[in-house]
Amino acid sequence: MPDNGENAAFIRKIYDRALTDGRCYPWLEHLSLKVGHRLSGSAGAEKAVNWAKATLDTLGLDSVWLQPVMVPRWERGDAEQVTVKGSKKYGDLRLNALALGGSVGTGQKGISGEVVEVNSWEELDKLNERGIRGKIVFYNRPMDPTRIRTFEAYGGAVDQRVVGASRAAKYGAVGVLVRSMGLAIDDFPHTGSLRYDSTYTLIPAAAISTLAAEKLSALLAEEGKTTVFMKMGCRTLPDVLSYNVIGEIRGAEHPEQVILVGGHLDSWDVGHGAHDDGAGCTQSMDVLRLLKSLGYRPRHTLRCVLFMNEENGLRGGRAYAEEADKKGEFHLVAIESDAGGFTPRGFHFDGDDAVIGRLFDAVKPYEALLAPYGLQFARGGSGADISPLKGQKGLLTGYLPDSQRYFDVHHTAADTFDKVNKRELELGAASMAALVYLLDAAGFGR
């Protein structure tokens, strides 16, 4: 490995090139504004695949290809109608809502039911069938604003979105409303996937905005019995063929060992999917372009993977890992950017329990070279798409930008290109490229 003086000088070149000749921002502009949202199985997702491959083809990489993967196809249908009926204070009050991904619809007539609010699983279980049958359960447990790490706050609340429908159906509920997974009090509902338990009836589920949740909770407190009407036209169709998009620079010394950078190309069907995860995709593409443009010849194979179907199935990540195992490929390092395009803060490192301690100890010394750019290293999670690679016993890494604003736009119509800052996005691409360079040049091996 070159000495630290050489490393520091090359890292400086990476940042200089990214900040004066970056491509991730104009690429993200095209992906956001010309392609738009791209839910798995949609025409937008197909358009994104074609654009990503065509763009990688212009970079002079050693290989660019599409990896087939069958993905779910869920359609939202007409705009959701969620309305409080006959409130003494408001009359009929429309609540801004989005069906949760994978939810069943309500049918043309919609459904109505008395609303019962719960703030914990214990409250739900205490109400039991006697208090829930025939009603609409309203989950109103907020993200914890005292958590400085907002992903911890998200993790502490998102279970009600993921499994709340089936847990309510167990007691005879006819529908579910979930407070959006966001810290801000605004009128943007946050969609996201749910997971049904086939043991119970599949009931319709929607997220309502945090502002709507506050209003509904206040109405229940003031007026007692409150009825809500829900109408959703969403449906699930047969799986369709889609693709992961992959490009690589072959390693000069260890081509069989892969250092991966990636993000997920699919997004939800509202907004532009700019932060989630267009930012991570275009940053990952720019990592390979930056290193190639600086004349760097890697020792290991550097691979950019744009995964399909992270949002509602993780089919792309699983298919990629299965194919890698079949080919006998070893992923020395896998880095995922899926936390937005905000200011870089550092990296989290994860891996198989048997090796992560040793691997983290090996990478920790390089933190000093990236500290001047505001980056820190810590043990923690990595990324959903790369998690199926854990069994290979390589290093899994999550790129961490500042997270304080991420859940203002996550899974909402507000996740648009104008919310992304050019310099912050470019700094992220440079940070990932610098880490890739260090791990490749170090001979970071088994």
What's the helix and strand layout?
Layout: H1 4-21, H2 24-35, H3 43-57, E1 63-75, E2 81-87, E3 91-94, E4 97-99, E5 111-118, H4 121-132, E6 136-139, H5 150-155, H6 159-169, E7 175-179, E8 205-208, H7 210-223, E9 227-231, E10 235-249, E11 254-264, H8 274-293, E12 300-307, H9 315-327, E13 330-336, E14 344-350, H10 356-363, H11 367-370, E15 376-379, E16 395-401, H12 406-409, H13 422-441
Parallel strand pairs: 5-6, 6-7, 7-8, 11-12, 11-13, 13-16, 14-15
Antiparallel strand pairs: 1-10, 2-3, 2-9, 4-8, 5-9, 10-12, 14-16
Helix pairs in contact: 1-13, 2-8, 8-13
Overview of the structural elements:
The chain is α/β, with parallel strands linked by helices. The protein folds into 2 domains: 4-73 and 238-441, Aminopeptidase; 77-233, Glucose Oxidase, domain 1 (3-Layer(bba) Sandwich). It has 13 helices and 16 strands. The chain has helices at residues 4-21, 24-35, 43-57, 121-132, 150-155, 159-169, 210-223, 274-293, 315-327, 356-363, 367-370, 406-409, 422-441; strands spanning 63-75, 81-87, 91-94, 97-99, 111-118, 136-139, 175-179, 205-208, 227-231, 235-249, 254-264, 300-307, 330-336, 344-350, 376-379, 395-401. β11, α8 and β12 (300-307) form a beta-alpha-beta unit. α1 packs antiparallel against α13, α2 packs antiparallel against α8 and α8 crosses α13. It is elongated and about 70 Å long. It starts with a helix and ends in a 5-residue tail after the last helix.
Q: Which second-level CATH architecture of the largest domain applies?
A: 3-Layer(aba) Sandwich
Share of residues in helices: 25-40%
Estimate what percentage of residues fall within beta strands: 25-35%
Report the order of strands and helices: HHHEEEEEHEHHEEHEEEHEHEEHHEEHH
Shape: elongated
**The number of domains:** 2
Overall strand count? 16
Distance between the termini: 16 Å
- In the CATH scheme, what's the topology name of the largest domain? Aminopeptidase
Rg over C-alpha atoms, rounded to the nearest angstrom: 23 Å
Assembly state (oligomeric): single chain
CATH class value of the largest domain: Alpha Beta
Secondary structure category? alpha/beta
The total count of helices amounts to 13
Average pLDDT metric: 97
Question: Looking across the biggest beta sheet, what order are the strands in?
Answer: 1-10-12-11-13-16-14-15
- Major sheet: 8 strands, mixed
CATH superfamily of the largest domain: Zn peptidases
